[in-house]
Amino acid sequence: MASPPKTGPERSTAAAGKWIETTLGIIYVIGENVQFYDDHDHWRNGFCRLLEIPEAQARTFVEQAVASARENFGKLFSDLDCNEKLACLSQATERTLYRGERPSGSNIEPSWGADPDGTPADCIYAYTISGDRTRIVAGVRAKEYAWLVDAANNKPVTADSIVYDTAYFSASGDAHYGMKHYIDHAGWRLEKARRLMGTVIEQTQDKRPLWRKHPQSVKLLDIGSGIGYYRKAADELGFQHYGIDLSSDIIALCKAQFGFDTWQCHLMDLEKVAAGMRVHLITLWDVIEHLEKPREAVALLKQYLADDGAIVIRTPNLSALDADILGDYYYSFKFDHVRYFSVKSLNALMSDLSLAPLYLETASHLFKGFLGADALYKAGLRMKGADILAIYEKS
Fold first, then answer.
1. Backbone dihedral angles phi then psi of residue 104, each to the nearest 5 degrees
2. Residue partners of 259: CB distance under 8 A and separation at least 6
3. Whole-model pTM?
């Protein structure tokens, strides 16, 4: 990456370019040269929603990135190479999100805790959660593993402190907490579930051809199944499916929306509802980051896995390009995410449990309007995408 450009206070760049909204999407141009482009849906439901910022601030972010190109490289943003663009995005983060006040200097305390192997924290990944100083993300740098720390008591945040009520899933809940618009955005969330379930089947069919030929024989257990988007996708594939969740509110909504019954219990109490069950697919869609003891949880789930079964995990990537750019404002640093993995640390955990990767991918989309598909694809190949999708089988 190019050396980070100089930072400074936020400034107007209105004279340098203009915004145009067309049927194609939202565009920022200088003269006739497009500097930034995004489709309307991703701009509002992707970029603005994930960063949890108003559209005016999002536009300022774009303007600052474009201004940085001229100030530091003497070029249009569109003419920069990828590393130069990344440096400009980092400066835009400093100006529009940090606003020149990046926190630093916290001392790592012994009470902050340790990783599952007992290695104490030796680094700080985030001094705040999007500027809120009540939480810190600390971890072990060499292992690429981190956890959430309560700045008030200097102790790791416990999983049982998170409340999964109706507010957790609503648009009006607390900032950087919960699943915003989880129910309102049912259309694209269900389509996403279908797409990801399709990827799972595509990547397992060579070893498990019977899953396609006899789908009615496949049993799937969805952990933290929520309103049931992924169970609906599994149902459409013809699979038998089961779900567990902690939230009585979301379980009721799942029943109303899709007619699916869900077991209400803690993962570690699975034996109470699923004694003797063996399943072909165990899925944890955006769940493992909520688990205080992920190693113990996966070890328990492995007992329910059929010999030809697979465990699917989707989780934010601690070592993502997005995290490098955004720092404390990385959208996956949240008040309800108590543990953080990279591909390296997730593979290490699964290897300890004799589970081998069958498929791994990482993918990012937030900065597609700046970087384009080629750069994001290559970041994914380097395991620097913001979301990890991993499939594991018994080794």
1. -165, 170
2. none
3. 0.94
